[in-house]
UniProtKB/TrEMBL annotation:
InterPro entries: P-loop_NTPase. This is DUF1611 domain-containing protein. It comes from Nocardiopsis sediminis. The lineage of its organism: Bacteria, Bacillati, Actinomycetota, Actinomycetes, Streptosporangiales.
Length: 359
């Protein structure tokens, strides 16, 4: 049996590394050491240096600054191990050793594809060289790189959460438009994506919409939330919410990704600690049936639904169809950007399955 070994990276190799969004806490302090060998067992969130061996679906890697860096065979990249839940792309689970695997998200997730949408190109292939390690040979996990927790805030602030039917239902766009409208209403808006797959695109959209601070689950030490322990996800959500309030936000917008039938999302919606943080929910859907179903699912969980939005609003006919079946408004992008409408979502009593809640 061969023991694991600690390998030093030369200055030239360190400088040439392409560091991903998920590994951004390392950027500027690039790894000096790798631990390698057949006994190495990666964990969710462990950082790994890998060689790109074949270009597939993901031709570019998102950098810590948000630039999409072109990939070429032979590139050495720093990514994180994690699972992926993406019905429009890949279902993937991280391998149990340093075997060849796949780049399953442009934000920098290494995993093994279990299934893929039929019209998606095969994944970009990776050959792991070793886990990023400290000088003692201990693997570095993104959970090790999290900033110290802030003190629990002494107050809370109004909070709106956005969730939806599935991937690409328009959740992030809905959240960003809310940020825009609330900012126009004079609020200091903090935004956080509390579940999903590590990537920066949603973060930059919230920033561009005017949020004063934007965080996501990677800031709480999770590369992805799929297959992560529910208590860990919930604790991360609370920590992100606290950090935004301590940072000066007077209103918070949260995005809950992956769709209400996804296992972790479905479980989170029934947690008292999440519902206690959120005053109003906006549901993003792609069609009228999804909008009606989603509203009922949220209300069954006792959550107050303020409005429906998402891709459905790209079709006036579909939006009218949904409006005819709903007792909450259906808002498109222009409405959510309106300061009066955005502020109204937390200003009026909302009806949930268990009675009225006043935001």
């Amino acid at each position: 049996m061969h023991a694991s070994a600690l390998v030093d990276l030369s200055a030239a190799r360190r400088a040439a590394l392409k560091v991903s969004y998920t590994a951004r806490a390392l950027d500027g302090v690039r790894p000096y050491h790798l631990i390698t060998g057949p006994e190495v067992r990666p964990r969710h969130g462990d950082l790994v240096v890998a060689t790109v061996t074949e270009i597939g679906k993901h031709t570019r890697l998102e950098s810590p600054a948000g630039r999409r860096v072109h990939l070429y065979p032979g590139d050495e990249v720093v990514v994180a191990y994690g699972a992926r839940y993406a019905p429009d792309q890949f279902e993937a689970e991280p391998p149990t050793d340093l075997r060849p695997c796949d780049l399953v998200a442009a934000g920098g997730i290494a995993s093994q594809v279990l299934s893929a949408r039929s019209d998606i190109a095969p994944p970009t292939r990776l050959a792991p060289l070793g886990l990023v390690a400290d000088s003692t040979g201990a693997p570095v996990n993104i959970a090790d790189l999290v900033r110290p927790e802030v003190p629990r805030p002494l107050h809370t602030v109004p909070t709106i959460a956005v969730t939806g039917t599935s991937m690409n239902a328009g959740k992030t766009t809905t959240g960003a438009m809310l940020v825009r409208g609330l900012t126009a209403a004079g609020h200091r808006v903090g935004a956080a994506k509390i579940t999903g797959t590590g990537a920066g695109g949603d973060r930059w959209m919230f920033h561009d919409a005017g949020a004063v601070e934007v965080l996501d689950f990677t800031d709480a030490g999770l590369a992805t939330t799929y297959r992560a322990p529910l208590e860990r996800i919930a604790a991360a959500a609370r920590a992100l919410h606290d950090r935004l309030i301590v940072g000066g936000a007077d209103i918070v917008v949260l995005e809950v990704a992956d769709g209400i039938l996804q296992s972790e999302t479905a479980a989170l919606l029934h947690r008292d600690d999440l519902s206690a943080m959120v005053d109003a929910w906006v549901f993003a859907a792609g069609d009228a049936a999804g909008a009606v179903y989603g509203r009922e699912r949220l209300r069954a969980a006792g959550l107050p639904v303020a409005a429906v939005s998402g891709r459905i609003t790209a079709s006036p006919l579909a939006a009218r169809e949904a409006a005819g079946r709903l007792d909450v408004p259906v808002y498109g992008t222009p409405e959510l950007c309106d300061p009066g409408i955005a502020a109204s979502l937390i200003a009026r009593p909302l009806v949930g399955a268990v009675g009225e809640r006043s935001a």
